[in-house]
């Protein structure tokens, strides 16, 4: 092999996380030659530092919480969790941070993997610098797909660099339980990791700049999660900012906007995400390094005929399942254009349009209790100028909820467009509601009329009977 090797492909994919893998899968299924470039592990953030390890950590926490609410069982689960076993299970679900299995899958679909740092070097060209300093030039006949994801965004606080703070990566991969943990932020990462580490024995303080947790959901979701965290022993402080941090020996010292001094062994900043586009050569194709990529509904970067931005990098929905959905759309759009299809199905809900990104994005937060939502909240619908009605039901009134857990606490809301009588959004909060959200996604994405939903009969006695209660409340 020469020092610089040039190879042509139909498609070059930057990033081998779930999004890049799915783009490659769809283009390879269409018969296009595809190269995938990855600078870390094949499988990406989700497999090693996000979805898989975080849910592995949360599962025993939530299972114990659920069991403690079941008569005849609760007395058996009052002790502490087996921390080494929980962490070992997390390690297993993260494949012990080895990507052999993911590499084998990628090779199995016929894609070529290049390890190293990939950068655009002008139109349809990617240079790869390998781990040994070797250089390759990959050219794309049809498309380059940027699937490099996002990273934790840290604030510019005095003393932060010296503190060596946790981000989501350290929070999901830590090998021991900190005695005291400060969590800065009130979103998904903050609430899930506070749930985990408090249950594993850490004394957790959550500092939230805003008025509540999970601010992108209906207010009642964050309120119930905050209530349960507080009852479990977490110190949740709303309307609290961090002004500075430092380490004194092995202790982290954080000073709040009100002048309070807080001490901990570790501090986690869960304060947002930034695109991993700062060093991928965007400037060589006229784009701003470090920027989010603006794309159309086929995921093609606006103004380009060959560049695609798929997953977190386009900032449409920073969720693995939405990124994979986008990847399926993008892969098929790339294949259709490569085949010379004159008109793609880009109408709403067409095969080549990522319409769900606008109308039906689902999310589950795996806290105790779970919070799940799809579509618009009441505030979002009203800001959009829609004429809507919010319908609320206390989940404890549903027979299945009482059977699921003694003293079940939860709430449900659906947002109905009064002009079309279809659902614009649904939110559930309560134990076990994560498994309800796909039914809501089908109703919202399918634009199922309320009159038709009335004939979708929920099984008794399940928590899904909340659908009947919501419809009854709407009909009066």
TrEMBL record:
Its EC number is 1.-.-.-. Residues 9-321 form the FAD/NAD(P)-binding domain. This is Dihydrolipoyl dehydrogenase family protein. InterPro entries: Class-I_Pyr_Nuc-Dis_Oxidored (IPR050151), FAD/NAD-bd_sf (IPR036188), FAD/NAD-binding_dom (IPR023753), FAD/NAD-linked_Rdtase_dimer_sf (IPR016156), Pyr_nuc-diS_OxRdtase (IPR001100), Pyr_nucl-diS_OxRdtase_dimer (IPR004099). Its cofactor is FAD. Residues 361-467 form the Pyridine nucleotide-disulphide oxidoreductase dimerisation domain. GO terms for molecular function: oxidoreductase activity. It is an enzyme of class 1 (oxidoreductase). Belongs to the class-I pyridine nucleotide-disulfide oxidoreductase family. The keyword Cell cycle does not apply. It comes from the Bacteria. Keywords: FAD, Flavoprotein, NAD, Oxidoreductase. The keyword tRNA processing does not apply. Gene3D superfamilies: 3.30.390.30, FAD/NAD(P)-binding domain.
């Amino acid at each position: 092999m020469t020092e610089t090797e040039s190879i042509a492909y139909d498609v070059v994919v930057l990033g081998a996380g779930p999004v890049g893998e799915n783009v490659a899968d769809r283009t390879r299924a269409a018969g296009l030659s595809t190269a995938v470039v990855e600078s870390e592990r094949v499988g990406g953030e989700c497999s090693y530092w996000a979805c898989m390890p975080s849910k592995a950590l949360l599962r025993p926490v939530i299972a114990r919480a659920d069991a403690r609410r079941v008569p005849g069982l609760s007395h058996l689960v009052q002790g502490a969790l087996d921390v080494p076993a929980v962490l070992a299970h997390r390690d297993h679900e993260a494949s012990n941070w080895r990507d052999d299995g993911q590499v084998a899958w990628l090779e199995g679909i016929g894609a070529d993997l290049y390890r190293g740092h990939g950068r655009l070097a002008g139109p349809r060209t990617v240079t790869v610098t390998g781990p040994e300093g070797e250089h390759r030039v990959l050219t794309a006949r049809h498309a380059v797909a940027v699937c490099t994801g996002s990273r934790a965004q840290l604030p510019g606080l005095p003393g932060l660099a010296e503190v060596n703070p946790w981000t989501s990566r350290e929070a999901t991969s830590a090998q021991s339980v900190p005695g005291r943990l400060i969590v800065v932020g009130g979103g998904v990462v903050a609430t899930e990791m506070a749930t985990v580490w408090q249950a594993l024995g850490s004394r957790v303080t959550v500092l939230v700049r805003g008025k509540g947790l999970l601010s992108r959901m209906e207010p009642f979701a964050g309120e119930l999660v905050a209530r349960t965290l507080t009852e479990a022993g977490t110190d949740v402080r709303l309307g609290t900012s961090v002004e500075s941090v430092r380490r004194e020996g092995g202790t982290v010292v954080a000073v709040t906007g009100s002048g309070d001094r807080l001490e901990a062994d570790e501090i986690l900043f869960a304060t947002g995400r930034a695109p991993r586009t700062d060093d991928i050569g965007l400037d060589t194709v006229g784009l701003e390094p470090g920027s989010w990529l603006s794309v159309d509904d086929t995921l093609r970067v606006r103004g380009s005929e060959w560049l695609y931005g798929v997953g977190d990098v386009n900032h449409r929905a920073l969720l693995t399942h939405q990124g994979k959905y986008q990847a399926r759309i993008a892969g098929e759009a790339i294949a259709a254009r490569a085949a010379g299809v004159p008109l793609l199905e880009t109408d709403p809900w067409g095969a080549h349009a990522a319409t769900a990104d606008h109308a039906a994005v689902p999310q589950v937060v795996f806290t105790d209790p779970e919070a799940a939502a799809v579509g618009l909240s009441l505030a979002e619908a009203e800001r959009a100028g829609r004429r809507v009605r919010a319908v609320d039901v206390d989940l404890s009134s549903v027979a299945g909820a009482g059977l699921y857990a003694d003293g079940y606490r939860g709430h449900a809301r659906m947002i109905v467009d009064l002009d079309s009588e279809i659902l614009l959004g649904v939110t559930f909060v309560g134990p076990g509601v994560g498994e309800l959200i796909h039914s809501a996604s089908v109703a919202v994405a399918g634009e199922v009329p309320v009159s038709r939903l009335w004939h979708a009969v929920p099984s008794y006695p399940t928590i899904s009977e909340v659908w009947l209660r919501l419809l009854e409340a709407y009909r009066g």
